[in-house]
UniProtKB/TrEMBL annotation:
Organism: Aquibacillus rhizosphaerae
UniProt record similarity statement: Belongs to the UPF0047 family.
Protein name: Secondary thiamine-phosphate synthase enzyme YjbQ
Phylogenetic lineage: Bacteria, Bacillati, Bacillota, Bacilli, Bacillales
Entry's transmembrane regions: none
Top-rank lineage group of the source organism: Bacteria
Pfam families: YjbQ (PF01894)
């Protein structure tokens, strides 16, 4: 089973939690057990799992990525000027593989799934595919 989701990011860099969207889709499609893959369809936006209890984690995460990959670097040659966004996406990754058990994502107490925007705001897409098991 597969679905494409759309979202509009609001900031140049952001982490949009998509955990509830994934959980609702699992429930709506009566998926009990399996492997779920969520994948960004963009070279400047990724997917990660991280803490969802303290909002400072998101801002710290984005701040530290900016420190490693500053937006303007004198040696960047990419004509669109968004080399940092490409590097951040490759570092974070464009997808995550998650388990589904008893109709729910298998996540730790403080974990959430995030769509990571690195070159927004933009209209974005991500794909979710589940391989069901018994």
């Amino acid at each position: 089973m597969e679905n494409t989701f759309h979202l509009k990011t609001k900031n140049h860099a952001d982490m949009v939690e998509i955990t509830s969207t994934l959980e609702n889709w699992i429930s709506d499609n009566n998926i009990k057990n399996g492997i779920l893959v969520v994948s960004s369809l963009h070279t400047t936006a990724g997917i990660t799992v991280n803490e969802n209890a303290d909002p400072d984690v998101k801002s710290d995460f984005l701040m530290r990525l900016d420190e490693v990959y500053p937006w303007e670097h004198p040696r960047d040659r990419h004509g669109e000027g968004n080399t940092a966004a490409h590097l951040k996406t490759s570092t974070v990754g464009h997808s995550q593989t998650l388990l589904v058990s008893n109709g729910s994502l298998v996540l730790g107490t403080w974990q959430g799934v995030y769509f990571c925007e690195f070159d927004g705001p933009r209209n974005r897409k991500y794909v979710v595919k589940v391989i069901e098991s018994k």
